[in-house]
């Protein structure tokens, strides 16, 4: 009896929630999901998701027909190429160690591609962050792509007020170019995608990304990529601990984040 009740509860958790179907899913969308840390916490901050919730969300994706694709598909969609949609891409920022201990085993189970946006000076810096050996192991799986998140994860709005315009332009170049060079030298792979720290971007930063050799950059925005999305500020949807199955399904099917009733 207890086993039957457990199986019934599991099936209910993975079912497509009725509230997510009150509107027809949009056509031609790719929802880029963004995670940071995976920890078991009471009242977690916005960048922390419990391992149990992440595993449940990935089970939901496996059980439904929405494909999980590599992040480069978002560039194709934004620039007018035909791609299979709706779809989901998965990213994680900052290089927290829990990406390896908690996220990576789930990714291996489902064979889902993931892009990690890294600040290379933080790799191996203290027990909370990934080591280069962990990064290389994930890269060797063929499922995990490493891309840039700047060198020091600056708040570009704050940094602009500390410098002359010339100094600020040089600071941007240093953060974008040296991050890319360090990752390519360490990992031997092409780095041409960037995630903006805190989602901050503007015309100057976007132009600097283009000049530094980035084919695409990612901000936030809580809505999916569609044809015509700005290639140096492609939207991503931050996932929170409060994103249960109903809300997660809503976003995975291509809807912008909004309160559900």
Please describe the topology of this protein:
Elements lengths: L1 H13 L15 E6 L1 E2 L9 E2 L1 H13 L8 H7 L8 E7 L4 H13 L3 E5 L13 H9 L3 E5 L7 H5 L4 H23 L5 E3 L7 H9 L4 E3 L18 E2 L6 H8 L9
Parallel strand pairs: 1-4, 1-9, 2-3, 4-5, 5-6, 7-8
Helix pairs in contact: 2-4, 2-9
What would you note in describing this structure?
This protein has 261 residues and is α/β, with parallel strands linked by helices. It is built from nine helices and nine strands. It has helices at 2-14, 51-63, 72-78, 98-110, 132-140, 156-160, 165-187, 203-211, 245-252, and strands at residues 30-35, 37-38, 48-49, 87-93, 114-118, 144-148, 193-195, 216-218, 237-238. It starts with a helix and ends in a 9-residue tail after the last helix. Mean pLDDT is 90; it is low at 1-21.
Structure, briefly:
This protein is an alpha/beta fold and 261 residues long. The protein has nine helices and nine strands.
